[in-house]
């Protein structure tokens, strides 16, 4: 009888091998083995072998279950077919002998013999110590990756310059709320832009006056701020027709009417200002280059369909630069066409845009964190020449970047990382390219910081465990994170958070609809200024106010602004703990806010003349904090000065209201 070789794959306890993608998901294999995920062989042990015969076809099916070890306490079982046996005399030769989990599968046949298995050729590590990528040499040097590339960068806190020369406001510098919300908005809204809008909108009003018999009054800067307040107020209501906001008749029983007429801006005036709204100079007719027939059909056929699927709201793409700590938008640029953006400077588009956005902060040794649009070795070199640092995630293969070497690395556990360094002419590391594993592989380019272990990333997850009947338990997952990744992920979401504040909380673009492209872009930038005012106000005052409450208070201050009257000097004095909060007073006039601090207290006492004759006028008590002074109610506006706790003199406008005597 001929000798039949025993199929080791069908022997319980035998060592077998299979491809990683046959054992686990492709994403898991790619996370661990990079570009070797489809060819990587993992090894396991046969747990059970079951053979079943189909009575109809008389063919047998053998199911082999094996357990595979991927490393990092990761063990799985699955009934996938192993491709061969493991030979202890021929190791794989890879830099990671731990493997992943899966199980061998089913074999169909007449079961009359086994398959001969031959030894597997050893897998050698193909990665050299040095990599030359388009003339840029990268070296594998673990000690250099633990050093601060280009030196350390000290932490700097954000600050905002005020209108007073030499004065700045930073985190926690305005706990007493010396500045109002309107003041913070004016700090974020450029004064030159307010002047430009005032001139352009008055020009549009003048044009309308020449075409219609009606004469519309010119707009002031204070009225423009009031117009902004009405726009913010519109975001607080749900409406189908904007004219319904001025209605005094409630449509529903328990929902009051908006009554926008109380803002002292009529619907006709608001519609006129919105019609004349201009944020920048716009030509009366479309330029010839933008009205070409070819461009029109290219827009309709090639762009709109795919663009609307990705960006459902009409608009344009804007590239920002924001402060990583406060989230304030610092600079922006609109995305142009390829012909407009093309320049003969030898740089890529991402590098040119990055240089433009951070140009005002050149030579300040600040760290710039960008997304994959700006990721390139050229950007890191250009920003270094400008005196700036750079950290960025690389998603696609970039010129001069050692992506092939990093893709060939095998990293088993979350938090594993490996990198290469680039040395300058003096032999010191000036750039670093590395990979870090979390849920997936992340590739970075940096010219600062190091791969020293930083603060770990902690996630809370619910896990059921091995028992399917057991209840879920809360587990804390800790992912080791290098220092350079801490810096990047602490700041990279600042722009996205600012956009969410504007689009989901403020919602100017959704509530104030327009078909004019320039108006849409302008209102978007206006929303950025409002959100920036909130971020600075929150950081400087440490307020517990919600974002929605801030927008409501800001709308009120914009509607009640006294910008056209000019500032009124406050009395000098030192602020003590007994003084009232400064946010209760208008920062420009020093007057108390409507309904707060200064008010009239009704009384039934009537005025007497020489203690005998009763007059029709009632006495009124002027109340402020714990101090009050009797005042006579009349039809004029009085000016009162009250000594607050003996330390502060504030000028308060008291509006006296005539009382009904019958």
TrEMBL record:
Xref: InterPro entries: PGBD
Residue spans of biased composition, Polar residues class: 77-98
Sequence intervals crossing the membrane: none
Sequence segments annotated as region (Disordered): 74-98
Listed PANTHER family: PIGGYBAC TRANSPOSABLE ELEMENT-DERIVED PROTEIN 4
Residues annotated as domain PiggyBac transposable element-derived protein: 183-283, 314-534
Species the sequence originates in: Nitzschia inconspicua
Protein name, as recorded: Transposase IS4
